[in-house]
Hints:
By secondary structure, the chain is of the alpha/beta class. It has helices at 13-26, 39-49, 65-72, 87-95, 107-119, 124-139, 189-195, 238-248, and strands spanning 4-9, 30-36, 53-57, 78-83, 99-102, 146-151, 154-159, 163-169, 172-177, 180-185, 201-205, 208-211, 215-219, 225-228, 233-235. It has a five-stranded parallel beta sheet, with helices on both faces. It has a five-stranded antiparallel beta sheet with strand order 10-9-8-12-11.
Amino acid sequence: MNRIKTLIIDDETDAREALRLALEKYCPDVKILASCAIPEEGIQSIRELQPQLVFLDIQMPHLSGFDLLAEIGEIDFAVIFVTAYNHYAIKAIKFSALDYLLKPIDPDDLVIAVQKAKNWQAGQDQAHQYESALSNLQHQKNRIEKLAIPTSEGILFLETANIIYCRADGNYTTLYLKNHPPVIVSKPLLDFEHYLAGSGFFRIHHSALVNMKHIQKYIKGDGGYVILSDDHHVDVSRRKKEAFLLQLNKI
């Protein structure tokens, strides 16, 4: 059996040991090459040992997990991020379709993550995902001004102020933009709702998330509808109407 060559990088001694024991118990097809306590040691081990899989803590002294990947440059291995709490980091990782585990690590989640890593084939798209997540982390506090969208061709950087509204289409979302053709993204609208929270967007309908600053007019009705800056007419659901009007009065 070809065991997947694996590296652990985490500044917490207990966390490294717990992960090592869990991998030995639940993932016999994993071969641990080394366990590193500091990012600089991790960078050296990656270059020397050439792992196929790296378990990487997000928050470490001196360098974050994303900083470490930026130092490496070309990424030809799978990464499973490990984190204890960072809410914004988790958002950025999920939005970029990367895998992560929360501490303390659940064995079932660990087994699934390792299997996904084994199935993954290293490629340029994966590197774009890391770049996208890093960009979103760098811009995100409570409010973000730019969104990095991973696409098949690379990363599309969008000013959130130029997103007029987002429309749901199953597991896809269409972004309607100022002075740019619509962009279809393979993410559900709920991801955009969560990620753009605090950035002036409001979900006025189960299928529509609008940038409040692009509302030109609200037309009364059962739920009513809004006219946006690109002249799109978008319905407001009855259930959302009261909360929407409260938000509208704050603009």
